[in-house]
Amino acid sequence: MNIIVVGAGEVGTHLAKMLAKEYHDVTVIDPDEEMLNHVTANADVLTIKGSATSIQTLKEANIKKADLFIAVAHSEETNIVSATLAKKLGAKKVIARIDKWEYLQPNNKEIFLNLGIDSLIYPEKLAAREIISLLGQTSSTEFVDFSGGKLSLLVFKLEEDSPIVDYTLLQATKNTQNLDYRAVAITREGITIIPRGNDQFKVNDMVYVIANQSGIKEMLEYTGKKNIDVNNVMILGGSRIAIHLALELEKSMNVKLIETNPEKSEKLAALFKNALVINGDGRDTDLLIEEGLQYMDAFVAVTGNSETNILSCIIAKRMGVKKTIAEIENINYIRLAESIGVDTVINKKLITASRIFRYTMSTDVSAIKCLTGSDAEVLEFIVKPGASITKGRLKDIGFPKDAIVGGVVRGNSAFIAKGDTEIKPYDRVVVFALPTAINKVGKYFN
């Protein structure tokens, strides 16, 4: 595909790098030459210095031949105007990043569709939604539902007391007659592998599991994990993510939000009906204790500073908080944070990339998730009649070794895939794939 990315910031750079790895032809537009140089140092892309709201600049980028136009600049106005112009000038599909929730309201969304914008992306809202999902499944460091929850991906870190440590994959499931869950990947020391029958689970492994609804409870017993009920939550930072999170959580939980800026604290307090806003420095341990950190079920750090989020989560963990979530925008910090005790990491770049990446797939991908602790992806395909994957049993069709079919939704039933499973047209199939397998996997669903 010919893809144009507007904005060489963190999100734009990450997208350009990821899309270039998939062998797409990527052009990045930004007025800042230094930022463009940073992009070219990290990805094999073309760059154009200029404003994406300039018709001349868009023509220079060969907008007429663009299959996908992605506007993710810092300025919401730049994104909306450039996306509108791009569609009028011939781009097949256009996506714009926005910063206002009101634009996503059904009546307002119609306005942007009429302008030619195919999709609006609001990273902060997506991040808040993901955090809410994780607070409902506290045993997992990452949680993704497919097909309305018929299948789920859960990610666990194995502790020393986990019952399956030193077990092989076969040993861990030998007493299970009807397989309702399956380990589809293991990340160990930064390397992700697709496990086979004789691969062993080790302490500190991050294990990726696909499960149907009946398999989640049994899987928790095997991994030694427990879900906790979250009733009391402390949020650090008054960011847009924090606002969306508090507005949703205050409906059913006790919420305390800590913000350092006095003026912002007053404005935030006026927004909420039940959430309590505290003006203070969230790095101050005495303040956190005074505000009852030790009695919280969950602590969510979403300030604009990754280091502050990591350190405050470590403090919360030491105070006995069972679930800690940190927003970390520096991807290099993610593994560090997980290794020193932060339960779950949220990254807006990866969340945004997940939402956008499915537009680049030639097959019917109904969902895709770029995983935080791994460079792998989990995808949900809708199987077309005549697709290669329907031509025999999974073990007989030469499915890529660096990918694995985790589960299948057929009608109202969901089941875990095995070697002798045969895929049918219109099945929804969840696949875990390493980067080397993405293109190969897609061909099986064409």
Brief characterization of the structure:
The chain has 446 residues and is an alpha/beta fold. It is 32% helix and 26% strand.
Note down, in words, how this protein is organized.
This is Trk system potassium uptake protein TrkA. One of its GO terms (cellular component) is plasma membrane. Residues 141-225, 363-446 form the RCK C-terminal domain. One of its GO terms (molecular function) is potassium ion transmembrane transporter activity. Pfam families: TrkA_C, TrkA_N. This protein is α/β, with parallel strands linked by helices and 446 residues long. Among the domains are: 2-121, Rossmann fold (3-Layer(aba) Sandwich), CATH 3.40.50.720; 233-321, Rossmann fold; 352-444, Alpha-Beta Plaits, CATH 3.30.70. It is 32% helix and 26% strand. It contains 15 helices and 22 strands. It has helices at 10-21, 33-42, 55-60, 76-88, 106-114, 123-135, 169-173, 213-223, 240-249, 262-271, 285-290, 306-318, 334-339, 348-357, 438-444, and strands at residues 2-6, 25-30, 46-49, 68-71, 93-97, 119-121, 142-146, 151-157, 181-188, 191-193, 206-212, 232-236, 254-259, 276-279, 298-301, 323-327, 344-346, 365-370, 377-382, 403-410, 413-416, 428-433. Strands 3-2-1-4-5-6 form a 6-stranded parallel sheet, with helices on both faces. A hairpin with a 4-residue loop joins strand 7 (142-146) and strand 8 (151-157). Helix 1 crosses helix 14. It is globular, with a radius of gyration of 22 Å.
